[in-house]
Structure formats: C-alpha cells, structure tokens
C-alpha cells in the first residue's frame, strides 16, 4: 500500500534525530542551527548613550533660545565617567557615547547653533528622554535571547557578537552520500553515446544538499548490477544519510531496494501517493536515514524538496524543518487524478494583496523546463480531482 504524502513525511521526520553538537566560530556560523539557548551576559545597550551627535543637556535649562556654555566633550569610546551636565551647562556628545550624569535629553546639532566657540544656543527645545538610548532597552542581561533550534542569520550573528561571543554550539551538518544508479549514465563532461545520458542527478542533488545545510559526498555512478550497487551503497552507508537516485520502480533491474535490504537497511515504506515521486522509498540502517529517490530529475528534485530537505533540517536541529507554507490563489483551473497528491510546479507572483499561483506549464515528469520556470510548488491534496481558478491552495517557495 502506498503511503499518503503527509504520512510519508511524518514517518520520515519521526525517524530522524539532531546530530551531535560541535563548537563553531561566529565567522563560520551563518546558516547553522543553535544547539543550546543563549542567555545575554550583559544588557544591550550596556549603558545609557546618545542616539545623535549633539549636546547633552538638562531639559529645564534647554528652553528655546537658551544659550549654554559647552563644558566638555564625550566622544564615542570615551567612558564619560566624571563628566556631568551641571545646571545651566551643556556637554558635546557623539552618537553612541555614554550620556553624562545630570543629562536628561540630547539636542541634535541641527536643533542648535553655535554663538561662540564653546557656547550653544538651543533652537528647538527637547523633551525629557529625547535621543537617549537606555541601558537594557534592547536586550536584558540574563534573558534567553536565542532559543535552541534557531537558524543563525546575519541578525543573530550580530547579536551573538555584541554579547561578546566568538563561537556557538551548533548541531553538526549531515554528511550526505549521493549514489546515482543506472547503466545508461555517464559522468558530466562526457558526451553521451547512443542510449546514454549524463548523470545530472548527482550534481543536482549535491546542490540541493548544500542549500539544505548538508555536506554532499558524490559517490558517482553504480551500474544496475548487484555487485556495483553493493559497493557504492555500502560506501554511502558510512555517511550520515544516503540518497540514491533511480532503480526503484517496478523494472526488472530496479535492484536498489533489494541490495539495500541485503546491506541491513530496514525499509519503512516504498511508494508514496504523490506525483511526481511515486516510487520513492525510505529506510533506516542503524538509525541512519536512507532515501531511494526516483531517477527522473524532476522527480528526484521534488522528492528531495518535500521529503529529504525536512529530514536534513531536523538533523541539524532546526525547530522548523519545513519551509513556511503560504496560501495562493490558483490563476487557472487544474485537473488531476484523484488519489495522489500533485506537486504542481507554479510561478508565484504578487498581484495587489493576492499571491497568484500559475502552472509553469507541462507537468510531465520528463519536462525539466517547467521546473526551471517555477518558483513555487503548489500542493494539491490527494482526494480532490478538479480545481477551479480562484481557489486557495497551499504553496511554498522554492
Ligand atoms: N512499470 C512501471 N514503470 C514505471 C513506474 C511504475 O510504477 N511501473 N513508475 C514510473 C515512475 S512514476 C517513475 S518516476 C520512474 C522511476 O523510475 P526509477 O526511479 O526506477 O528510475 P529509472 O527508470 O532508472 O529512470 C527514470 C528516468 O530518469 C533518468 N535518470 C535516471 N538516473 C538519472 C541521473 N542520475 N541523472 C539524470 N537522469 C537520470 C533515466 O534515464 C530515465 O529517463 O519509473 C517509471 N516507470
Ligand atoms: O512518480 Mo514518477 O516520479 O511520477 O515520474
């Protein structure tokens, strides 16, 4: 019995675990996923400071037209300790510098004019608190600022660095072995002879693994015979994850599943009610996930996207292994066979406040040009057959 699209993905996600933890420097941490929460060792900002270049004043003195002697200057990087805005005075201050004692507002240069070398006239009087960034207003000391499972983007790297960290604990990236199977395959760079085709799946899947945060290990081509398959697949089982392409449909020579079983892989399912990607198989060897994807490049890439990518994200500890699901309006009618979820290649475009999903063209599995044109996948539920223009369908961007 083929599995439903949803239950296949659930079963896969239930059977993969985050990999062990390692320390990486912040310089290499973008795209990695935090294995442990991070607490702030100090407040941010660390002290009250000026948001503008201007003058630190007391509002009571800084009325319109007031002239105040400038008694000191606090530059960025200066501690400001010992400097005070005494009644009737002003202190020149630069953006980011600590505000001095006595000051309750900063007047930007533009709201003042100099009437003598060290004498400033207030043109626009400030309100209490103007242009002062308060200690801890952004981040409080001891608060949990990043949770385990967070994917580190430049914004998170910025925060971690400003909290004084130089490295973080993240889950290891999965090493993903890729084996392409088929007698007809020749490696890229070779002109195929009669009946031969280029092993494009190897590099395509390696690229997809990289984008998902994994480290691809390209193991080349296995011929459609037991010995060749056994050698390559056994080598692939040394990695954290094994992906093979082709050799899983009902053909006489589709030996991949047979050989995997001989190598100790326990098959959890074969065949999913999804188009494309029906012959996809999934198994485990000592807890390591093994994906057998169909050979058609479109099927291989779409099944990677829907089934392998979420698993690789979870192995890296991602709290949200699935891409965000959105809703889009179908631009035209779609007819499909009931009983299989259709992964429709679509062009997504915003039209006013609507996100429109239009079929990218010929949806046959052998057509790669419509995958090139697509920037989204619409997931059309198995039980339905006909969809009308204007219906809302779940989509995600690819
Ligand atoms: N009698 C049946 N025939 C087929 C069935 C079925 O259920 N019963 N399923 C069809 C479906 S759906 C698919 S998808 C394919 C999947 O077959 P395999 O995974 O066994 O793959 P192959 O038949 O070896 O190849 C399919 C197609 O893809 C090309 N290919 C294979 N490897 C690569 C590669 N590394 N790089 C680029 N292209 C590759 C191959 O030449 C074929 O054109 O089976 C249907 N048949
Ligand atoms: O399931 Mo196959 O992947 O439709 O072409």
Would you kindly provide a written description of the structure presented here, covering whatever features stand out?
- The chain is built from seven helices and 28 strands.
- It is of the alpha/beta class and 398 residues long.
- The chain is elongated.
- 18% of the residues lie in helices and 32% in strands.
- The model has no long low-confidence stretch (mean pLDDT 97).
- The chain folds into four domains: 5-18 and 172-315, Molybdenum Cofactor Biosythetic Enzyme, Chain A; 24-44 and 138-171, Molybdopterin biosynthesis moea protein, domain 2; 49-133, Molybdopterin biosynthesis moeA protein, domain 3 (Beta Complex), CATH 2.170.190; 326-397, Beta-clip, CATH 2.40.340.10.
- Bound molecules: ligand LQZAQKY5 and molybdate ion (MOO).
- Ligand LQZAQKY5 binds at residues 180, 182, 184-185, 197, 199-202, 245-251, 254, 276, 278-279, 294-297, 299, 365.
């Amino acid at each position: 019995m083929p599995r439903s699209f949803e239950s296949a993905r659930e079963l896969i996600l239930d059977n993969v675990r985050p990999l062990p933890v390692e320390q990486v420097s912040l310089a290499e941490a973008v795209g990695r996923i935090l294995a442990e929460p991070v607490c702030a060792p100090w407040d941010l900002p660390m002290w009250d400071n000026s948001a503008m270049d201007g003058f630190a004043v007391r509002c009571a003195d800084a009325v319109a037209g007031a002239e105040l002697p400038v008694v000191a200057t606090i530059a960025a990087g200066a501690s400001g300790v010992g400097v005070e805005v005494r009644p009737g005075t002003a202190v020149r201050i630069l953006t980011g510098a600590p505000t001095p004692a006595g000051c309750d507002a900063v007047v930007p240069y533009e709201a003042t004019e100099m009437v003598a070398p060290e004498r400033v006239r207030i043109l626009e009087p400030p309100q209490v608190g103007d242009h002062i960034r308060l200690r801890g207003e952004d981040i409080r000391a001891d608060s949990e600022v990043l949770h385990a499972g967070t994917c580190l983007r430049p914004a998170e790297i910025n925060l971690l660095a400003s909290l004084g960290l130089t490295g973080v604990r993240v889950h290891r990236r999965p090493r993903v072995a890729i084996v392409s199977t088929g007698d007809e395959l020749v490696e890229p760079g070779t002109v195929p002879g009669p009946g031969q085709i280029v092993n494009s799946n190897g590099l395509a899947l390696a690229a997809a693994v990289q984008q998902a945060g994994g480290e691809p290990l390209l193991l080349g081509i296995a011929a459609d015979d037991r010995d060749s398959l056994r050698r390559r697949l056994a080598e692939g089982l040394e990695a954290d994850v094994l992906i093979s392409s082709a050799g899983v449909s009902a053909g006489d020579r589709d030996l991949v599943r047979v050989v995997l079983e001989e190598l100790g892989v326990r098959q959890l399912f074969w065949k999913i009610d999804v188009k494309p990607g029906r012959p996809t198989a999934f198994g485990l060897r000592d807890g390591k996930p093994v994906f057998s994807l169909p050979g058609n490049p479109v099927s291989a890439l779409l099944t990677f996207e829907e089934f392998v990518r979420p698993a690789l994200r979870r192995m890296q500890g991602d709290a949200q292994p699935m891409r965000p699901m959105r809703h889009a309006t179908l631009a035209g009618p779609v007819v499909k066979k009931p009983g299989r979820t259709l992964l429709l290649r679509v062009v997504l475009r915003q039209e006013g406040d609507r996100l429109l999903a239009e079929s990218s063209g010929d949806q046959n599995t052998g057509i790669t040009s419509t995958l090139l044109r697509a920037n989204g996948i619409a997931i059309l539920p198995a039980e339905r057959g006909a969809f009308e223009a204007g219906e809302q369908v779940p989509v995600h961007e690819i």
